[in-house]
Design goal:
heterodimer, A: mainly beta, five-stranded antiparallel β-sheet, 1 helix, B: mainly beta, eight-stranded antiparallel barrel, 63% strand
Chain lengths: 368, 196
């Protein structure tokens, strides 16, 4: 009889424990993780992953980031998706479909991690190649490479729907490929590879006004541009010159001044700024040049042990919203790889975590 | 922890150590002569905790539904069990179709049992895209479980049961747990009572 009661006790404890098996996470892990969305032009889709990070050892660079493919991924888009943007509310995703000249709007199912497209798609100019939005999520800017203009849309904060603003599209130089917006949403910078120049615009209620003066010449093969979070400098990766250019921002007018250019690895194709560090992705040499940024002067000093070997000829880099990881996209390996940032030195540590995509990835965005 | 290298969480493993211990302790004083029903048919409520993080969900998922089992007893202690269950949440549906041996230890008005089950699972995620509504995956399932029956009448008993289910769907593996409770109807009999 005693053993029977003890057995019953064991059973009750077991069932109670089962009922408590709902969700578990260690205190140092991100409980919900981040969602990552990756455009796949050849698949006409967006791959979705959940990234669960463990960030207990950021100073030593032993953080980990694990990718889990979302069921149903990749999610269908329009023809040849080129750029993906997550609305600051973390509720909507926008994808530019460069071969059908429109933008797809998706709602994010945060529980599952899936995307559901909301039709109809919004028309843009010809060949939208890059999407950016201001930090409040009020306006979206689509850079149209072939029609040489920028379509500007106001964003409905409830539905995510886009409405083109008065005066849009705004003219820019033909075949511009990349753009970057300042953190305050006051300035937009457009990069043209053909003439290796940066065009500056001021923003007023979404409307663009060219900054007076000529565009600023940077290095040959200028292919990637970013603005630092403090809105002090613009950085441009010059793929033909194997350099990165540093430009200062006039905080009043938005005008740019070239401060200098610094050598990188071979064929830099992407640049990301995380004060006080700057990372340049070198596709040709499959490594990353890491620099420290000197405040005020903008002088770059390459970090000891840079460049950092990463392999797989990475095309682009995306910064984790917590500023603890860099994600690299490779079109030769069809992968997204996670590298943790050693916060004490600025070096990158390979987490050995990789997500495989169905076809070459072209851009990526990560939720907060 | 060694068992975690096998893909089973320490928490889940602890649960089943409890369950196995409970069965072992209860079978330590078996009676020699036993009589058993030929058929036992169980139906009832089932709660299932699905390891949905393996295919992208933010958390494990809690599902509610039914579990039905039929056991054909070959001997008083040994039978063959067929298990069919379906559990549901707003975005996930899980079905299982399983069969396997069951060992029972019977007392006058109660019974402990353990079983090993093998079969298929079908998981469906209810999300809509332009191309389709929902994504379904069918894969292999292995299960181990234990339960306790208490007689209510000559034909009916009350059952509580817990199972660990290892499913392979959506190209990944899931370690699920299931708790069931309900009524068992039995008919026919095998074995014979000891002579007094």
């Amino acid at each position: 009889m005693l053993s029977k009661r003890i057995a019953l006790l064991f059973m009750v404890v077991g069932l109670i424990t089962l009922a408590g098996c709902n969700s578990s996470s260690t205190p140092s892990s991100s409980p919900a993780g981040h969602l990552a969305f990756v455009t796949l032009p050849n698949s006409n889709g967006v791959a979705a992953f959940r990234i669960n990070t463990n960030t207990s050892n950021s100073s030593s660079g032993s953080d980990t980031a694990k990718f889990t493919a979302i069921v149903g991924s990749p999610f269908p888009t329009g023809n040849s998706p080129s750029s993906v943007l997550i609305h600051p509310s973390q509720q909507f995703v926008y994808v530019s479909n460069q071969n059908e000249n429109d933008i797809s709007l998706f709602t994010i199912n945060s529980t599952v991690g899936s995307l559901q497209e909301v039709l109809p798609r919004t028309l843009t100019g010809l060949t939208p190649s890059s999407l950016v939005a201001d930090s409040t999520g009020s306006y979206l800017y689509a850079l149209n490479r072939q029609s040489a203009n920028i379509s500007v849309f106001s964003i409905n904060s409830t539905t995510g729907a886009l409405s083109e603003i008065a005066g849009s599209p705004f003219a820019t130089f033909p075949y511009s490929m990349e753009q970057a917006i300042s953190s305050s949403g006051k300035f937009l910078y457009v990069l043209n590879t053909d003439i290796s120049s940066v065009f500056a615009y001021t923003i007023t209620s979404g409307a663009l006004t060219p900054v007076a003066g000529l565009p600023v010449k940077v290095g040959n093969g200028a292919i990637a541009i970013t603005v630092d979070p403090a809105e002090t400098f613009v950085y441009v990766a010059n793929s033909s010159d194997n350099t990165v250019s540093v430009l200062s921002i006039n905080s009043t007018t938005g005008a740019l001044t070239l401060l200098g250019s610094y050598p990188t690895g071979t064929t830099p194709t992407s640049v990301i700024a995380l004060d006080p560090y700057l990372y340049v992705v070198n596709k040709g040499s499959s490594n990353i040049s890491a620099f420290t940024i000197t405040p005020v002067t903008g002088v770059l000093t390459e970090i000891t042990d840079s460049p950092i070997t990463v392999g797989n000829a990475p095309l682009f880099a995306v910064l984790d919203p917590d500023n603890l990881f860099v994600y690299l996209g490779s079109q030769s390996a069809n992968t997204i790889s996670a590298f943790s940032i050693v916060t004490s030195t600025g070096l990158l540590s390979n987490t050995s975590q990789t997500a495989t995509t169905a076809s070459p990835p072209s851009s990526m965005a990560v939720t907060k | 922890m060694a068992i975690e290298r096998l893909g089973v969480s320490g928490k889940t493993a602890t649960v089943f150590v409890f369950l196995v211990l409970s069965v072992v302790m209860s079978t330590s004083s078996l009676s020699v002569g036993q009589v058993a029903p030929q058929w036992e048919v169980f139906g009832g409520y089932a709660y299932r905790n699905v390891d949905s993080t393996t295919f992208g969900f933010v958390n494990r998922s809690s599902l509610n539904g039914f579990d039905a089992e039929g056991t054909y007893n070959i001997r008083p202690r040994w039978g063959v069990t067929v298990d069919i269950g379906g559990q549901y949440s707003s975005q996930l549906t899980a079905y299982n179709f399983l069969a396997g041996p069951q060992f029972a230890s019977r007392r006058d008005k109660s019974m402990w049992f353990v079983h090993g089950l093998f079969g298929k699972a079908q998981n469906t995620v209810e999300i809509a895209t332009l191309a389709r509504n929902g994504f379904e995956s069918v894969g292999r399932t292995l299960g181990v479980g234990a339960g306790y029956d208490r007689d209510l009448s000559p034909r009916f008993t009350f059952r509580v049961q817990a199972d660990f289910l290892r499913t392979d769907t959506f190209k990944t593996g899931q370690n699920d747990v299931r708790a069931s409770t309900g009524l068992v109807f039995h008919f026919g009999h095998i074995g014979h009572r000891p002579k007094l």
